[in-house]
Specification:
The protein is mainly alpha-helical and about 190 residues long. The protein is built from 8 helices and no strands. The chain folds into 2 domains: about 80 residues, Orthogonal Bundle (Rna Polymerase Sigma Factor, Chain: A), CATH 1.10.1740.10; about 80 residues, Arc Repressor Mutant, subunit A (Orthogonal Bundle). Helix 2 packs antiparallel against helix 6. Keywords: Sigma factor, Transcription, Transcription regulation.
Length: about 190
């Protein structure tokens, strides 16, 4: 079966065939939840805000202008919904269980980390990033979003996104090095 692009399903939903929105939810639910979880740091709140993000997207679908990718537009809704929720509540609880580590992240060069432990180390290191750093890394490396798209999601300038991504990569490198040193010392 041929997979259609997002615009096909969006047009169907706008035309009144609302059941097609389930495709959008299924395709993006993991990333939307992961962004919400990192920003809100609470699983229940993240589930609620992820659902709220999809409801907002569904209700506003007719306003989607296709100037950016649909995923960028949806992630922006998610990010803003979660930031608004954070302003209402100040709770902190970190988890990176929902992030899927893939081979595409290899470009960050994790060669020094044994392959069998790579996912564990990366998730642990990601959990130590601040929410804005985590969101940038997630969108850029795990969701293949461009700097321009991330800029639209976060409201940061393109150059600011690049600087923050650079700093987040540096921080990940330091965190991973420390984790590896601790493991080597504990073995000795």
């Amino acid at each position: 079966m041929e997979e259609k692009d997002d615009n096909y399903y969006i047009e169907k939903v706008i035309a009144g065939q609302t059941s097609y929105f389930s495709y959008v939810v299924e395709k993006y639910q993991d990333v939307v939840f992961s962004i919400a979880l990192k920003v809100l740091k609470n699983r229940e709140d993240a589930e609620e805000m992820a659902q709220e993000s999809f409801v907002k997207a569904f209700k506003s679908l007719h306003t989607f202008q296709r100037k950016a990718k649909f995923s960028t537009w949806l992630y922006r809704i998610t990010y803003n919904t979660c930031i608004s929720e954070t302003r209402k509540k100040k709770q902190y609880f970190a988890s990176t269980d929902e992030v899927q580590i893939s081979d595409e992240v290899e470009e960050m060069n994790f060669d020094g980390i044994p392959a069998e432990n790579r996912e564990k180390y990366i998730k642990a290191a990601l959990a130590k990033l601040q929410e804005d750093e985590y969101t940038l890394v997630l969108l850029y490396y795990f969701e293949d979003q461009s700097v321009e798209d991330i800029s639209k999601v976060t409201g940061l300038s393109g150059s600011n996104v690049k600087v923050k991504l650079y700093r987040a990569r540096k921080k990940l490198y330091v965190i991973l090095n420390e984790m590896l040193k601790e493991d080597v010392y504990s073995i000795l």
